[in-house]
Amino acid sequence: MATTARTVKFNCSTTSPKTRQEVEITLTAPKDDSVSQVIVSGNIQAPGNEIEDITFECTGGDVYKAKYVPSVVGRHCLTVNYCGMPCSNSPTMILVAPLGELKTTLVGGPKFSNPHDIVEVDNDFIIANKGNHEVVVTDRSGFLKNKFITPTLSHSQTFEPYAVAVQEDMIVVSDLENRRVIQYNKDWIPLKQIGDEHLYRPTGVAVDEDKKIFVADGQLSSVRVFDADGHLIKTIGWEGSKPGELLKPWFMAFNSKHQLVVADCQNCRIQIFNAVTGEVVDCFKVQLDGYDMNVRGLAIDKHDVIYITAITNTKRPFKKTECAMAYTMEGEFLGRFGSDFFYPRNIRVMEEDGESLAYVVDGAHHRIMVYKL
Fold it and tell me: Cα 115 to the chain's mean position, in Å?
């Protein structure tokens, strides 16, 4: 009886490698007198829909091997064909984790004080340096170029910058204790303050392509949406633990489908909302070693991989786990990296000289850790 491809399987040395870690794919051809020539072929579809052919070589007898070194974090789809037909376990998903190798540490010059957020603008960094009640502009090494301590807009409380978002010529900063968001132009001239009567403790901010301003509120457990003129147009979520409900949301970002992805901190999960209707699209729990994790910072790379900072949600007496983690948009855990954090805040993913880097704002250690992905 002839062997069909439906009964032929291949093996991978690992289906959860890190970037730059070699994956060996092995197929042992079955004994089949009806097959005059064995042909084994395959390809990998990496995040971004790039398809790469892989070449199998006969290493002796009936054993065929190929090697693949992933360079991108996320879900890779492996297809292997035996004599022109897909193998029985084809396609197989390879979930590639971040490399997580520390590249450098930014401590600021002068030194940062309890930084909360970092964004990249015109090859510089804008940092919410909350401990010093200022927003600073630094070069790529973290050295000061400019700073903004007290907005000219009148208000009685100390400036408490928490998060920063940039969209074209608009810069938006959430001011935690003053219950507002401040909108600046690129020259750091404050144009308006938003949300005094609609916000209580604004945390993360995001601005969409239409310049609508999305503000997470940790006290009101919701996301308030304002138009570019500062008028409240919508509220997403309300306090609770059901899908679509929030409990002290922190940072957030948009994915490639213009869905709003939110760090639902005290619910220990990530929630994805339709940014237009406000309806929940998906949500999934974040756990590590059997413990729920409070989700704090959140970033999304160009391939829709979600990166978060998280801390163990437990009162156990020994040291809590504080780390960065990566997930697919479907909620598949990819891996963790980083250690020795002390109350990490936001995380950002940036491209630099062809290399993907994660900037982890390690707030209580007054530094920003940069990792290779």
Answer: 18
